[in-house]
Design brief:
Blueprint: E1 5-7, E2 10-12, E3 17-21, E4 28-33, H1 37-56, H2 59-75, H3 77-88, H4 92-112, E5 119-121, E6 132-140, E7 143-147, H5 155-166, E8 170-174, H6 181-193, E9 200-202, H7 207-216, E10 222-226, H8 229-238, E11 243-247, E12 253-256, H9 262-274, E13 286-290, H10 291-306, H11 326-341, E14 345-348, E15 352-353, E16 356-357, E17 360-363, H12 370-373, E18 380-386, H13 389-397, E19 404-408, H14 412-421, E20 426-429, E21 449-450, H15 455-461, E22 463-471
The structure holds NADP nicotinamide-adenine-dinucleotide phosphate.
Length: 474
């Protein structure tokens, strides 16, 4: 299948042809052109023109377009899920869930488009403001550059495109080069829903060229990026004076108190660690268990890990498909080997076949091992013994990251202690850090990023506050 770039409402050719492959079979499932500088420039020009069209469109019309998009996504669930499963290697059952979530993200955006409020400001609270009436309103920023990763090729695009349009902006989207086909399908849907030409433009190609041209262009008012901390840092360096949101990585901890339901925790942690082969920014990676329940929990967690069905993501029974490429599976294998050399034990897994890496549980790890200190972004979780709850909280916090953490306990005092002490953008009580509802504020502290997504919160950062002061004639 041949695909094209979307610029100003037209599907156009570009430069070198990129091949997109099935991550399980390796067969080519689509080809599309890489954008050259001229296509990126044309996309930005189109977005600049469309930004004024979107800014002057009535809120109820923007809302209707987004609601129509949600309906069309829902109608095409099976096609979209199969594209995600093939190009990202995500098990089909989870690819379908991703589509459901994208329907929800667009539905919430349709609702939020109607409630972008300002406030009155009592200017006479200062003597200089006596005799003035004041209010502020939110105005769209203009052109939003959206750069997305491979691991949720639909819903993480939705989290950028839907709020940008809801707020009355135009978008230039650059999806991950390994998974652009879902983004093409979404752009088709947006056009079918009736988006004005240029409101959404799609350029595909390497981050180092296409991505950087977008980020550094002064016509872009806002960059919204999800991906790795290294690229996030680079974006901050080259963006210049513009708004930037960074949704980056994590090495998510789970804190397990002895009063928790161990069977439940083991099953939730297995799903949270291996879903999408652990290639989720909030994947369960470090599980801190108090000594009293360490052995029984480990046994249950190993059993739950071994129950995961590994294989072809298009097979309905499969839980864990391939990683995004063989190189990534090799990297994960090398980190596990390095940990073993340092004394870590493999309780189950530790096996690789091409791009597939088996669900793996490690024990006897050390805090400075890569499998603990860095984001593994693969299906590997470590179970770590702790003396007491405070020790678990301290170790969970001992990281450069700060996206989400999970805590399992029935003790209300421990719950509030954890909420107070954990330096994470989200604290999830009695579930894993993988929990996310698409309208909640979502984002990280420290190396996990800057800003928040979750439609309403993204809209806040895709709008400028405009203050109005009116001198009243007496
Ligand atoms: P990545 O390598 O950082 O790539 C993300 C996107 O950035 C891709 O579209 C990539 O293009 C582009 N890019 C690469 N270099 C660039 C540059 N110099 N300038 C501008 N854009 C550039 O990340 P990934 O491997 O796709 O995703 C994995 C990472 O994303 C993990 O760290 C994960 O934790 C994080 N993530 C975070 C969240 C969150 O919400 N916090 C959610 C999902 C994933 P190419 O594809 O062409 O390289």
């Amino acid at each position: 299948m041949e695909f094209k770039l979307l610029i100003n409402g037209k599907w156009v050719a570009g430069g070198d042809i990129l091949e997109v492959r099935s991550k399980y079979t390796g067969e080519v499932i689509g080809v599309l052109p890489s954008a050259r500088h001229e296509e990126v420039d044309a996309a930005l020009r189109a977005a600049e023109d469309a930004a004024s069209v979107m800014a002057s469109m009535a809120a109820h019309k923007r809302s209707a377009l987004l609601a129509r998009t949600a309906v069309l996504i829902a109608e095409k669930t099976e096609d979209l899920a199969r594209t995600i499963a093939a190009e990202a290697g995500k098990a089909l059952k989870y690819a379908r869930l991703e589509v459901d979530r994208a329907v929800n993200t667009f539905t919430v955006a349709a609702e939020e488009a109607k409630r972008i409020h300002g406030e009155t400001v009592p200017l006479d609270a200062a003597s200089s403001g006596e005799g003035y009436f004041g209010y502020f309103a939110r105005r769209p920023v203009g052109v939003v550059a959206a750069i997305s990763p491979f691991n949720f090729p639909l819903n993480l695009v939705a989290h950028k495109v839907a709020p940008a349009l809801a707020a009355g902006n135009a978008v230039v989207l650059k999806p991950a080069t390994s998974t652009p086909l879902t983004a093409v399908e979404l752009c088709r849907i947006l056009m079918e829903a009736g988006m004005p030409p240029g409101a959404v433009n799609l350029v595909v190609g390497p981050g180092a060229t296409v991505g950087e041209w977008l980020v550094s262009d002064p016509r872009v008012a806002k960059v919204t990026f999800t991906g790795s901390p290294a690229v996030g840092k680079r974006i901050m360096e080259i963006a210049g004076i513009k708004r930037v949101t960074l949704e980056l990585g994590n090495n998510s901890p789970v804190i397990l108190a002895p009063d928790a339901d161990l069977d439940y925790v083991a099953k939730r942690c297995a799903l949270g660690a291996y879903y999408n082969s652990g290639q989720v920014c909030i994947s369960v990676q470090r599980i801190y268990s108090q000594q009293a329940v360490y052995e029984p929990f480990l046994e249950k967690f190993v059993r739950a890990s071994e129950a995961m069905v590994v294989g072809d993501p298009l097979d309905e029974r499969v839980d864990v498909g391939p990683m995004i490429d063989i190189g990534e599976a090799e990297r994960v294998a090398s980190w596990v080997t390095e940990a073993q050399v340092g004394g870590a034990q493999v309780a189950t897994g530790g096996k690789r076949d091409g791009g597939v890496y088996w669900p793996t549980v490690l024990t006897s790890v050390q805090p400075d091992m890569k499998v603990v200190a860095e984001e593994i972004f693969g299906p590997v979780a470590s179970v770590i013994q702790c003396e007491h709850f405070e020790d678990a909280l301290r170790q969970a916090n001992d990281t450069a990251y700060g996206l989400q953490a999970g805590v399992f306990t029935r003790d209300v005092n421990r719950v509030f202690q954890a909420i107070r002490q954990l330096n994470f953008g989200g604290v999830i009580i009695n579930d894993t850090p993988v929990f996310r509802a698409d309208h909640m504020p979502y984002g990280g502290n420290r190396k996990s990023g800057v800003g928040r997504e979750g439609v309403r919160f993204a809209i806040e950062d895709m709008t400028n506050i405009q203050m109005v002061a009116i001198r009243l004639e007496s």
